[in-house]
C-alpha cells in the first residue's frame, strides 16, 4: 500500500465553528479523511494573541471546537485531532522559522492588516499577534503535509509557509533554487511546498451589514456575525430573520440586489433546490417576492442541515471524558510526527551535538 499523502489544517479557538468554516474548509476535511492522513489542530496558543486575559474561555472554546469537529463528521479513528499547546516542537520550530521571514514581509501580509482593522485591534495588539503567522508556518511544516484545506483569508499565511519551505530546503538541505515546488522533497528538501485547498465557498460573508467601505465582512467567530454549525433551532431562526439583506429592496422602484446580499449568498451555498433559487432570484429582482418568504425558506434549509449536528452536540456535551480522550490520543500521534520533524530540522541546521 502506498503511503497516504498528509493533510494539515486548524482553527483558532476564539468561539464555536460556523457555516463559513463548513464551506471554507471543514467540508473538505471530512471528505479528505478517507484518502489522506489528516491532522486537525486546535490553535489554542494563537487564541492568546487576541484574548490573553481570558484563558479559561480559550480552554472552553478549544473543547467546543473539538466537539464541532466530531459533530461535523471528523472521525477520530481516521483523523488526528489535537491541541497546539500539547505539541512543544511547534513552538521551537516557530523560533527557527522566524529567522527565515523578513519582518517587513510579515507586515505586508494583507490578512494581518484586515484582522487589525476588522477586529478593531488599533495599535494595542501584542507582539505575539504578529508572531502568529510565523507560528502558523510552524504548525504546518511540523507535519510536512502536502495539502492544507483553508478559506481564502489564509492564502497569505500559506504563501509564507511555501516561502519558508523553499528557503529552508535551499539553505540547509542543498536543494537547487531552480527546483520546481513539487520536486523539492525528491531533491533532498526536508519540507514539501504545500498547496492550499480552497473550499467550495472561499469566503462566506457574515450576517451583518457592510462596513464603512461598503464591504460585506467575512463570517468570523470574532465578529459576532456568524451562524454556528451546531446552533439551536431558535437561534437559527432569529439570526436568519434578523440578517442583513438589501435595504433598497423596500423601495418598489428599485430592483432587489442579489449580488452583495447575504440572503442569496447563503441560499447559493446551502440550498440544494437550485430551481427554486433561480426562480426566486428572478422574482426578487422584480420585487415580486419578499425578504421574509426567502428568509423563511433559508431557515428551513439551514435547520435541516444544522439540527442533526446540534443533536450530536447535546449528546457529546454529556460525554466530555470521551472528547478529552480524543485530544489526548491525538496529541500522542501528533507529537510523534512533530518531534521527528524537529529532530530533522535541527540536524539540517547543525544544532544537534
Ligand atoms: P477568527 O475570527 O478568530 O479569526 P475565524 O472565524 O476567522 O475566526 P479561523 O479559526 O481563523 O476562523 O479559521 C479557520 C479556518 O476556517 C480557516 O481555514 C479559514 O480560512 C476558514 N474560514 C473561516 N471563516 C471563513 C469564512 N467566512 N469563509 C470561508 N472560510 C472561512
Ligand atoms: Mg480567522
| Helix count from the secondary structure assignment | 13
In terms of per-residue confidence, which ranges show pLDDT below 50 for 5 or more consecutive residues? Answer: none
Q: H/E element string?
A: EHEHHEHHHHEHEHHHHH
Form type: globular
The main pleated sheet reads as: 3 strands, parallel
Which strand-content bin applies to the residues? 5-15%
What is the third-level CATH name, the topology of the largest domain? Answer: Rossmann fold
Instruction: Identify every distinct bound molecule in the structure, by name, code or SMILES.
Output: adenosine-5'-triphosphate, magnesium ion
Helical percent range? 40-55%
| Protein structure class | mainly alpha
| CATH architect. name of the largest domain | 3-Layer(aba) Sandwich
Radius of gyration over all CA atoms, rounded: 22 Å
- Number of DSSP strands? 5
- CATH-wise, what's the superfamily of the largest domain? HUPs
CATH C-level label of the largest domain: Alpha Beta
| Integer tally of domains | 2
Order of the strands making up the biggest sheet: 1-2-3
What do the pLDDT scores average to? 94
Distance between the termini: 37 Å
Brief descriptors of the model:
2 domains; two-stranded parallel sheet; 353 residues; Rossmann fold; 52% helix; mainly alpha; binds adenosine-5'-triphosphate; Tyrosyl-Transfer RNA Synthetase; binds magnesium ion; three-stranded parallel sheet
Structure characterization notes:
With 353 residues, the chain is mainly alpha-helical. 52% of the residues lie in helices and 7% in strands. 41% of the residues are buried. The mean pLDDT is 94. It binds adenosine-5'-triphosphate and magnesium ion.
Amino acid at each position: 500500500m502506498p503511503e497516504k499523502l498528509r493533510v494539515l489544517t486548524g482553527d483558532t479557538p476564539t468561539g464555536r465553528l460556523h457555516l463559513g468554516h463548513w464551506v471554507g474548509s471543514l467540508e473538505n476535511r471530512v471528505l479528505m479523511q478517507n484518502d489522506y492522513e489528516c491532522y486537525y489542530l486546535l490553535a489554542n496558543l494563537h487564541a492568546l494573541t487576541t484574548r490573553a486575559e481570558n484563558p479559561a474561555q480559550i480552554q472552553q472554546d478549544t473543547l467546543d471546537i473539538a466537539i464541532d469537529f466530531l459533530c461535523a463528521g471528523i472521525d477520530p479513528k481516521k483523523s488526528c485531532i489535537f491541541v497546539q499547546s500539547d505539541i512543544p516542537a511547534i513552538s521551537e520550530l516557530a523560533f527557527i522559522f522566524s529567522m527565515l521571514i523578513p519582518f517587513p514581509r510579515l507586515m505586508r501580509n494583507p490578512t494581518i492588516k484586515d484582522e487589525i482593522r476588522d477586529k478593531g485591534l488599533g495599535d494595542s495588539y501584542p507582539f505575539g499577534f504578529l508572531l502568529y503567522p510565523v507560528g502558523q508556518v510552524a504548525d504546518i511544516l511540523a507535519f510536512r503535509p502536502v495539502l492544507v484545506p483553508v478559506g481564502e483569508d489564509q492564502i497569505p499565511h500559506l504563501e509564507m509557509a511555501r516561502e519558508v519551505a523553499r528557503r529552508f530546503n535551499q539553505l540547509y538541505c542543498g536543494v537547487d533554487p531552480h527546483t520546481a515546488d513539487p520536486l523539492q522533497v525528491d531533491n533532498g528538501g526536508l519540507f514539501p511546498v504545500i498547496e492550499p485547498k480552497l473550499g467550495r465557498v472561499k469566503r462566506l460573508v457574515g450576517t451583518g451589514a457592510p462596513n464603512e467601505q461598503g464591504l460585506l465582512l467575512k463570517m468570523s467567530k470574532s465578529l459576532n456575525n456568524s451562524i454556528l454549525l451546531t446552533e439551536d433551532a431558535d437561534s437559527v431562526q432569529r439570526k436568519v430573520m434578523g440578517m442583513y439583506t438589501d435595504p433598497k429592496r423596500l423601495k418598489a422602484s428599485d430592483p432587489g440586489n442579489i449580488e452583495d446580499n447575504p440572503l442569496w449568498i447563503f441560499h447559493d451555498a446551502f440550498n440544494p433546490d437550485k430551481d427554486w433559487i433561480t426562480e426566486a432570484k428572478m422574482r426578487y429582482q422584480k420585487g415580486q417576492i419578499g425578504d421574509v418568504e426567502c428568509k423563511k425558506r433559508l431557515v428551513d434549509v439551514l435547520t435541516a442541515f444544522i439540527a442533526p449536528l446540534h443533536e450530536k452536540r447535546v449528546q457529546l456535551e454529556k460525554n466530555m471524558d470521551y472528547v478529552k480522550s480524543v485530544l489526548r490520543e491525538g496529541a500522542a500521534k501528533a507529537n510523534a510526527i512533530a518531534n521527528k520533524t524537529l529532530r530533522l530540522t535541527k540536524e539540517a541546521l547543525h544544532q544537534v551535538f
